């Protein structure tokens, strides 16, 4: 039982520790000075992080409530989409406060694009995650077969010969197509956020203004990356269960046990799922910590002759 608790809760504590280490080493250098931006940032981080922790506990039976049988049917269908939905709502929160184009700022003819306040390497992780998720999705979807009772592509079947076979649930097309649609929505919402952050006229205190916009841009990408990581974690956890299926049949010489040819991948998939969950939660906690008010920015100095 202690090992079970470690596997389930380990990513949660690991994510918190990683975020605290990041905040102590680098995070305090990029904090806010309070205000509405900080409030919406905390709300987005807590929504995605807290929601995924609750989802993790609900899926493992550690939640201290008696759940009806209908819940487990719901969980099987929506555990993959929930992190993406939470990520989309979190990104909507990060769009606030929305600042319109105002003439009270400083005249600036420098072109501003959605990427003006981002660093190129910030996009490496989400791009790699998207490629990995797409690869796993296509591979698992191609291996899925229709469930005989529902017709949904959620089954993985192995023919053992002699009219014998074994099967298990898999992350098939029934689960993955809605997730691909939500990932598309996630990308669109992130793009809109970056446009809303970049478009307003620069404020009088240009250094502070650039800091705020860079901060908000980084958090949009962090929340999006976190949602993808948590989504990937649930996929890998599901596939770990799929590859571990076994079946035993009696023969004249005793019982014979069959397993999949890739059963050895189960520990790898479980470990990768835990790492993805830990990193995803670490990003959520880091977003929340980054909104802790720091020292107030001093007004820009004006020198006169």
What does it look like?
The protein contains eight helices and five strands; from the N terminus they run αααααβββααββα. It has 305 residues and is mainly alpha-helical. The chain has one domain (9-97, 111-290). The strands form two sheets. A three-stranded antiparallel beta sheet has the order 1-2-3. A two-stranded antiparallel sheet has the order 4-5. The chain is elongated. Keywords: Membrane, Transmembrane, Transmembrane helix.
Keywords:
membrane; elongated; 3-stranded antiparallel beta sheet; mainly alpha; 305 residues; disordered C terminus; two-stranded antiparallel sheet; 5 strands
SSE series: HHHHHEEEHHEEH
SSE class: mainly alpha
What is the gyration radius calculated from CA atoms? 23 Å
* Major β-sheet profile: 3 strands, antiparallel
Total helical elements: 8
Instruction: Specify the overall morphology.
Output: elongated
Low-confidence spans: pLDDT under 50, at least 5 residues? 297-305
How do the strands line up in the largest sheet?
1-2-3
Helix content: 55-70%
Q: What fraction of residues sit in β-strands?
A: 5-15%
DSSP, total strands? 5
**Whole-number tally of structural domains:** 1
Mean pLDDT: 84
- State the end-to-end CA separation: 75 Å
